[in-house]
Amino acid sequence: MIGTSLCKWVISYFAVAIVWLLLAEVLVVAGFGFPNHDIGGPDTLVIVHMVSIGWLSTVLCGALFQFVPVLVARPLYAERWTLPALALLTFGLTILLAGFLTLGGHFDGPPRLLPVGASLLIAGFALVVANLGMTLWSARPLPRPARFVAAGLACICVTAAFGGMFSLVLSGAAIGAQWPDLLVSGVPIHAIAGLGGWLTFTAMGVSYRLLAMFMLAPDGDARLGRLAWLAGVAALAVGAVGGVLALWRATGVNLALLLAGAAALLSLIAYGRDVLGLYRARKRRALELNTRMSLVALASLVAVAILSAAFVATGSLPSHVGALAFLVAFGWLTGLVLANLYKIVPFLTWLETYGPVMGRVPTPRVQDLVDERRTLKWFVLFFAGSWAATLMLLVDAALGFRVAVAVVTLATLGLGEELIRARRLADVAEPLRLPTGAVVPHLLVLRN
Amino acid sequence: MTQFIDVDVRPILRAGGEPFSIIMAALERLEPGEGLRLYAPFKPVPLFDVMASKGFAHREAELEGGEWEIRFMPDDGSFGAAEPAPAALSGGDWPEPVVHLDNRDLDPPEPMVRILAAMERLAPGQTLCALLSREPVFLFRELTKRGHQWRGGFTPQKDTYQLTVRVCA
User: Fold this and answer.
1) How many folded domains does chain A comprise?
2) What residues does the DUF2249 domain cover (chain B) (predicted)?
């Protein structure tokens, strides 16, 4: 192992992602998209893709570029591909959104916007998958958290492939006209592979290592994560392979999805048990804010599992799918990501700034770069807002939903400011702030 | 049959002391063919390398309460059952570590801070040995920048990463 360097553009990924998140939140507060408009309509698709690609996928890609090398103790395959990938993802998404806006009649654009945007996005994700995939390939046999990431990378390929085909159908291209039913039955697979496989499964794998690291819990047991891994892979395989087969045979999609759902539930239960086990075995008694908030986010995932099972049992899943998707995207994924950004950004900033002088002059601790008491209130607002918004969707209160998302937006702004303060070393007390030899970091680019 | 001299470092460690010099002093007093029986509150992994470089094989036994009894014997080749030190770790050509750190229970990134601070106090060519709960991937980056060399690897139990660093000469 030659050591992990800092990935130069990680913070840029995070910043672009947060801007997309804020934009999506502001549009929702303004009443754009679901629940004011149809859940499958173009306006809702704008919001959904802003959150899932602009925010969650971008932030996850950035975090993986920094974290996969740590996970497998190998350097990133090609650091020089990271900035082009960010440009392709951002540019591709912008064009895709313009395509959805055209579809919704807000904008008079050419019909090929959707396939062009999708192609750029596929190129961006291909660069990301190739880069991370080659890094993982060099580290076989993979430790279990890295296997979750590998499965997640496979899922983003499935998601992107379906997305590309949808763009052809929606744009009215001749080739797309051959699959008229694809949109109806393919959307669940696109969404499950994206939200479930790529975003959730990857986040689960990474969190095994992050939680063990931050709680000082032993994670060397080979059995740790095995059931969650096996059941999760089974769920994704049944969902994607079974789903595609069912599409081809034009029957049985619901059965494949039900089986996949049952396996996914088992995976989530096993994951919850593992996290609880790590929590009980931890050596660090007082947990830092990022770990506590990760556990709160996990509670949202538990709520999703329970609510989904209940809605399936009562047959009311179709009418509540919007609320569940919101809880997955915000209460679970966004909450988990924000909690971990609150650790990752100060840590990288600390390493970048004080690493070169560490041991030679007194330096602050990582905790000195943040103010947990002040930040806690933003997290409380964030989770309270997310849960309230879910509740409002469940009871069909559109205005209440927008008010709750306004609270979430405020919390996002507050947390964004905390991250900027960490980059600027604004909370580090003198005289430790800038010892001789240390330089204030750039806001958006890491020195490595 | 090997005769053993007993050294119990448990009270020394409990009192916050440094047992390394006492073990080395006991080693000096051994007669040819004699062994050393060590009682420790944890498995003294770094010591295995040091002792191996002095020609001692070891045999370990876990006692109650996580404590360990380690028997070090002059290695005359008759001691095949002993756990061999990983090749990458045996610092045959490196001097014995001057500093030993057990950083396994520290919050990250404190282990890294302590190692870098301790390295600053060493003379060129001297070495430091540290026990960690993980592979310190971010530390390697700083060590490389400062021109230090290191050797490391997980112990066979996979729960401890043992790192030896040599100050650039």
Assistant:
1) 1
2) 7-72, 101-153
Q: What range does the domain containing B64 cover?
A: 4-74
How far apart are the C-alpha atoms of A220 and A209, rounded to whole Å?
10
Q: Let me know if residue A167 belongs to a domain.
A: no
Residue of B108, B120, B137 lying closest to A73 (CB–CB): B137
Does any domain span residue A398? yes
Q: Could you read off the pLDDT of A72-109 as tens digits, one per residue?
A: 888 899 999 999 999 999 999 999 999 999 998 888 88
Residues B110, B156, single domain; the answer is: yes
Is the Cβ of A447 closer than 8 Å to some Cβ of chain B?
Answer: no
Calpha distance A57→A50 (Å, rounded): 10
Contact criterion met (CB below 8 Å) for B100 and B46: yes
Could you read off the pLDDT tens digit of each residue along chain B, which spans 169 residues?
Answer: 567 888 888 877 777 677 777 888 888 888 877 888 888 888 787 788 778 777 788 887 777 777 788 888 887 654 443 333 333 444 457 888 888 999 888 887 889 999 999 998 898 889 999 999 888 888 888 888 888 888 888 887 777 889 999 988 7
Residues of B in CB contact (< 8 Å) with A are 105, 107-110, 112-113, 115-120, 133-135, 137-145, 158-159
* Total length of chain A: 448
Polymer length in residues for chain B: 169
- Please name which of A320, A328, A195, A208 lies closest in space to residue A260, comparing C-alpha atoms: A195
Please judge whether B109 and A350 are an interchain contact, meaning their C-beta atoms are less than 8 angstroms apart: yes
| Same structural domain, B11 and B52 | yes
